[in-house]
Amino acid sequence: MLVTLRPEANRAAVERELVAHGLWVTRLEGSSRPALWVEPQSAQLAREDLLAIDGVESVAAPASAHPRIDAQPACVPFGPIRLGTGAPAVLIAGPCSVESPEQIRRIAERVAGLGVQLLRGGAFKPRTSPYAFQGHGEAALGWLRDAATAHALGVVTEVMSPADARLVASYADVLQIGSRNMQNFALLRAVAAEGRPILLKRGMSASVEEWLLAGEYCLHHGAPNVVFCERGIRGFDPSTRNLLDLGAVALLAHVHHQPVIVDPSHALGRRDLIPALSRAAIAAGAAGLMLETHDDPGSALSDGPQALTGPMLADLVREVAGHEEAP
Ligand code: PEP
Ligand code: MN
After folding, report:
1. Residues 264, 289: contact at Cβ < 8 Å?
2. From the centroid of its chain, how far is CA 122?
3. Engineering a disulfide at 98: which of 89, 140, 152, 274 sits with its beta carbon 3.0 to 4.6 angstroms away?
């Protein structure tokens, strides 16, 4: 935001007041009128409050690059439920990959009994190695849908290709865009055109602004709403699989007022730390969690080390979301 001062204003005093409000301020030298640049994301202060500061003449805010996202409510329909500020914490759980009809049926029954609302599971898997399990494709979509429907759960699953968007939308309530595809704009367009809510995972090297703009693509091309999912970004330290950016979660929740959830499974890559970071995510402003779980993590076809066992997931759900097990 450009804050222009009256010619007689005491620029140092105005600057001090802005800083006292928590704003990041830069002096603009060389302009015809004394002026300051204020980073809009640095604190929440209404334009009127800035104008009320003694010495401030005008405040100009550049037009937002993501007006549709800015106008999105903080609580949105998300498959069978609502997700965001004011709604109970949403839990999405399931295996990394849908491996067989029996596997997903057992997991659906187990997670439904805990009060989880949506079942996850990959049918089309974005694997770093071409030799790793790639998913069972359309067959897995059917197994996932049937298992979810049998237990009144919604379905969240990833779309990897524009050519599959229609197919996946015929099985899923929420369409997931994976981290590796956050800026695959052809995919965003095709998925958005299906008219389903989108779960938009943050690209592992994406800035918050790029993430918001990817959300803007989704709304611009027809998605009714977008829920953002922080899943860890690339850090310099491989001690955990990724670096869970809870600052970005707080920024989305409390400054941008967006529906945002956290996937601690892919952020950490190890099951033992997931409960601690799940609590932290909720405290930071996450409106829900996406958790990977498996009945026998040692035999999982993908991401076994980060899969919560049944008892671990049950403890976590009880603790974090205060859900009671269904009778
Ligand atoms: C997933 O959720 O199955 C997945 C592949 O996650 P990400 O895109 O965050 O790596
Ligand atoms: Mn996974």
Report:
1. yes
2. 17
3. 140
Q: Which helix or strand (DSSP H or E) is residue 105 part of?
A: helix 101-114
Overall average pLDDT of the 237-245 stretch? 96
Q: Ligand 1 test: best mutation among 119, 124, 129, 179, most atoms within 8 Å of CB? A: 179
234 Cβ below 6 A of ligand 1? no
Provide DSSP, 117-186: -EEE-BSS---SSTTS----THHHHHHHHHHHHHTT-EEEEE---GGGHHHHHTT-SEEEEPGGGTT-HH
132 has pLDDT over 80: yes
Helix H or strand E encompassing 46: none
Query: 121 C-alpha vs ligand 1 centroid, how far in Å?
Result: 10
pLDDT in tens, 246-266: 999 999 999 999 999 999 999
Q: Is the CB of 241 under 6 A from ligand 1?
A: no
Q: How far is CA 16 from CA 28, 40, 44, 157, 176, in A?
A: 15, 17, 16, 50, 45
pLDDT 10s digits, 135-173: 999 999 999 999 999 999 999 999 999 999 999 999 999
Report CA(3)–ligand 1 centroid distance (Å): 42
| pLDDT for 323 beyond 50 | no
